[in-house]
Write a structure and sequence with these properties.
This protein has 587 residues and is mostly helical. Helix content is 72%, strand content 4%. It has 27 helices and six strands.
Length: 587
């Protein structure tokens, strides 16, 4: 047993070390982390170093990364988001997938003599683009909110949605092709359909009425570990239930995400699961790379290279034409076609499942995976070519969209006394508000009055980023915990220096701390309300309005002067300023 345990640790260290070396190198070369993982897998695999000895077991563990990835896709899906982008998602996205898939399918049928079932799955798989690759490329260059980025994102969103039924269809199509489907086994297919519908309906009811109370109870415990474990348990339980009904575990994970998409705990769940998802998905791509047979690829290098060039060219042409037909300018359409011209990461998943199901041979799966890999490498060069071939006026057209970028949301962190008022004022002004609080009682109370508040610790930068901090017009920190406010200010200023940070100081000493940290706006929690009460008291004593204004202005000047002295010399500095009588000044 000790030997087996030692071997497991050796394999784990090898995987982690390979990822730690390959991913930074490929990111530095602007080729993306996915290619880094794949390359690490090829080097570790039997074709090069043959350093691993538990490939199949690791692959099954790594498949959890795909399940969690689909869960996150469902978690980020909201009906309002779908409705706002419906024309591009279900128009442009669906047209691209169906047209590209149909053309590639016909090519496989007539050129490669592939059976129609396998050709259809392969054609649709190659029609997918890489969400991780394309989004990271646009994010690195600040193009996510550009005109072409606004067209590319809905296409990727539709493809993410289409992954689920495609993965679910593979065992059904494979069973029909081999004669081992439900009818061949003597099982009434209608029973299977009824079982699947019943399970999904039951899970929907449970998700609607039971998930939030369970998550609220766990959140009250204050244990981050317990909350993360609960989220992972929900994913696993829903996936197993859907799998028992005869559908794919990937579909179950997606359904679990959709059930929690409108939950107040969505951002915290996504933040807690992200490390597991990223690590396991990276492990999955390493295992895919290990399965690539370099001998087969080198023996058919002309097929791989020609297939990659043909795939990139075909997808770029189709996407450019369709994007222009949906209202984009030609420069933006060309860039949209180029950035989405590569094959997608889920093609690796489909090819692996298809090979194990008998839809493809192992050799076909290897060559198809190699074509997708080479197409990813070609994407940065395709974008360089697209930018060079578009007229320079395209840059000024991009600039015309600038004012729209200012119409973003704000994040209100802390939904206590001040957070509630701030959210109401800003929201009634027509600005979208993302409210976050880590107190389940605050969230439940806000829901009674129609406010949507998400659960999470807003002092964590990763959670703020999940909530859209990078795109926010302002982040207003109203948490009750001064240390949490300070921590958030430092993290935001270091990681997102362009975002405006407004901090509520708990008291005078807290304001002194905050001024050293440099938020854009600082407001002391009780200052303005106290001044208002003092104003009303002076009015009742028949002081004139001008005199009251003068007194308040003198107080503000002296209060600021004393605050600056306290910052330099300590809390007791400037004490004499507090007791000075106001001087009546001439108007």
């Amino acid at each position: 047993m000790a030997t087996e345990g030692s071997q497991f640790l050796v394999d784990a260290a090898t995987y982690l070390g390979a990822a730690a070396v390959a991913v930074p190198v490929f990111n530095r070369l602007k080729l993306g982390s996915i290619l880094g993982y794949l390359t690490a897998g090829v080097i570790l695999g039997p074709s090069v170093l043959d350093a691993m000895h538990q490939e199949e077991g690791v692959f099954h563990i790594a498949e959890l990364g795909v399940v969690l990835f689909l869960f996150v896709i469902g978690l980020e899906l909201s009906l309002s988001r779908l409705w706002a982008l419906r024309r591009y998602i279900f128009g442009l996205g669906a047209s691209q997938l169906l047209i590209t898939g149909a053309i590639i399918t016909l090519i496989f049928v007539y050129v490669d003599d592939m059976p129609i079932a396998g050709a259809t799955i392969a054609g649709l798989s190659l029609a997918f683009s890489s969400t991780a690759f394309a989004l990271q490329y646009m994010k690195d260059r600040g193009d996510l909110n550009s005109p072409y980025g606004a067209k590319a994102f809905p296409v990727l969103l539709f493809q993410d949605l289409a992954v689920v039924p495609l993965l679910a269809a593979i065992p059904i199509i494979a069973g029909a092709q081999t004669g081992e489907g439900p009818s061949a086994s003597g099982v009434d297919p209608w029973i299977g359909i009824a079982k699947a519908v019943g399970v999904i309906a039951l899970l929907t009811v449970i998700g609607r009425f039971a998930l939030n109370p369970v998550l609220r109870m766990v959140a009250r415990s204050g244990s981050r570990e317990a909350f993360a474990a609960t989220a992972l348990f929900i994913v696993a339980a829903v996936s197993l239930a859907v799998s028992w009904a005869g559908l794919s575990m990937a579909l179950g994970a997606f359904l679990a995400g959709v059930l929690l998409a409108e939950s107040a705990y969505r951002h915290q769940i996504e933040t807690d699961i992200e490390p597991f998802r990223g690590l396991l998905l990276g492990l999955f791509f390493i295992s895919i790379g290990m399965k690539l047979n370099l001998t087969d690829i080198l023996n058919s290098w002309w097929i791989v290279l020609g297939g990659a060039v043909g795939l990139v060219g075909l997808k770029a042409l189709i996407l450019t034409f369709l994007t222009q037909r949906f209202g984009a300018t030609w420069p933006d359409a060309i860039k949209t076609g180029a950035v989405l011209s590569q094959g997608g990461e889920f093609a690796f998943v489909v090819f692996t499942l298809g090979a194990s199901s008998g839809l493809f041979t192992d050799g076909e799966a290897t060559l198809l995976s190699a074509i997708v890999t080479i197409s990813m490498v070609m994407t940065p060069f395709a974008m360089i070519l697209a930018r060079q071939t578009t007229p320079k006026t395209a840059m000024s057209e991009d600039g015309l969209e600038g004012p729209r970028l200012n119409e973003g949301h704000i994040i209100v962190a802390g939904f206590g006394r001040m957070g509630q008022i701030i959210s109401q004022v800003v929201q009634n002004a027509g600005v979208d508000v993302t409210a976050i609080d880590r107190n389940p009682d605050h969230i439940r109370n806000a829901e009674r009055y129609g406010f949507k508040v998400y659960f999470g610790d807003a002092s964590r930068l990763d959670l703020l980023k999940t909530a859209g901090a990078a795109e926010a017009r302002a982040i207003i920190l109203c948490m009750d915990d001064p240390e949490a406010v300070n921590h958030a200010v430092v993290a935001i200023k270091q990681s997102l220096p362009s975002v405006s940070v407004h901090a509520i100081a708990h008291d005078r000493m807290h304001e002194i701390q905050l001024r050293r940290l440099g938020p854009d706006v600082i407001v002391r929690e009780t200052l303005e309300s106290s001044i208002l009460i003092a104003r009303k008291a002076l009015e009742q004593m028949n002081f004139s309005d001008d005199m009251i204004e003068d007194f308040i202005e003198q107080f503000r000047e002296r209060d600021r002067e004393r605050l600056l002295q306290q910052m330099d010399y300590g809390p007791e500095a400037g004490m004499e300023i507090m007791h000075q009588r106001y001087v009546k000044r001439d108007a």
